Amino acid sequence: MDTMIDPLGRAVKKLGCDIVTETTVKKINVEDNHVDGVWLADNRTAFESEVKTSIVVCTVPVYSILGGVLNEENFTKGELNFIKMTARWIKGDYIGYYFLDDVVPHDFPGWIHVFDQSAGIPVYKGDIVMYAGTELSLGGKAPKGKQLLMPFFMGGVEGPLGIDDPSLQDILKKSSEFEGVIEKVIPGFSKATQFKSFSFPGEWGRYCYTRYDPHDIIGVKSEAVKRLYFAGDTVYHPLCHTGTEKVAIIAIDCAEAILRDLRKK
């Protein structure tokens, strides 16, 4: 908030922009393949109002707006193929699971992201999932009375392995390395481990070796609707989650695309 959001808010206000919060976009209006505005709903009163605008930037995952904020006719065939594929495979997958003695504090969060900041910037190392999260989200089960912990890696080029399609040996190696990270977060983890196994369910996205047509992708600029732009976390890289670098790259590319169009106008 202090280093990014507040300075950005002050900067856009100086440019004459209004900042609107506590609202939900219900619909992006498209007329003759041009953006015409949006319908906003006040989150507190549910009152809806129309805002006219010639540019709309969608910053939520693209697959989440199909059939609601935008319809199929607002996308090209290739964009639709990409969105539907991403919606189908958007979940991550897990490396393996461990059965533990009662070594994890009972107030330990159910799911945490682990970052290494020794380089001066946060570098994603992996996730640690505990208790209900392992069974409800990842399908893992443990014998009665045993604590169950499951390491989980975000996939894609921003993830720890740096690629979408790693070999099994690379996955097992990274999983073993992550045990040292878990030990730092939960001292005593290694000695308490009683059982270790690996599972790679095909219906979970990152390492199921899904193939897709490289032409089916969605960029920062809509191909079907003029003055509509995308900066959500499914732009460019299928089957991977957002990293800090990716957010910055997409934001800059999106801003530059808008500026190019404004100059043309």
Structure keywords:
FAD/NAD(P)-binding domain, about 260 residues, 6 helices, elongated
Topology:
Elements: H1 5-14, E1 23-31, E2 34-42, E3 48-52, E4 56-58, H2 77-89, E5 93-94, E6 96-100, E7 111-116, E8 123-130, H3 132-136, E9 147-153, H4 168-185, H5 189-192, E10 193-198, E11 228-230, H6 244-264
Parallel strand pairs: 4-11
Antiparallel strand pairs: 1-2, 2-3, 5-9, 6-9, 6-10, 7-8, 8-9
Q: Can you characterise this structure?
A:
It is a single chain. Helices cover 27% and strands 24% of the residues. It has 265 residues and is of the alpha+beta class. The longest helix has 21 residues, at 244-264. The chain is elongated, with a radius of gyration of 22 Å. The model is unreliable at 200-209 (pLDDT under 50).
- Count of individual domains: 2
Number of helical regions: 6
User: Uncertain regions: pLDDT < 50 for 5+ in a row?
Assistant: 200-209
| CATH architecture designation of the largest domain | 3-Layer(bba) Sandwich
CATH fold node name of the largest domain: FAD/NAD(P)-binding domain
For the secondary structure, the number of strands is 11
Task: Specify the CATH homologous superfamily of the largest domain.
Answer: FAD/NAD(P)-binding domain
- Which whole number gives the mean pLDDT? 79
> Structural class, from secondary structure content?
alpha+beta
For the termini, the CA-CA separation is 35 Å
Compute the CA-based radius of gyration. Answer: 22 Å
> CATH first level of the largest domain: which class?
Alpha Beta
Q: Roughly what fraction of the amino acids lie in strands? A: 15-25%
- Share of helix among residues? 25-40%
The biggest beta sheet is recorded as:
6 strands, antiparallel
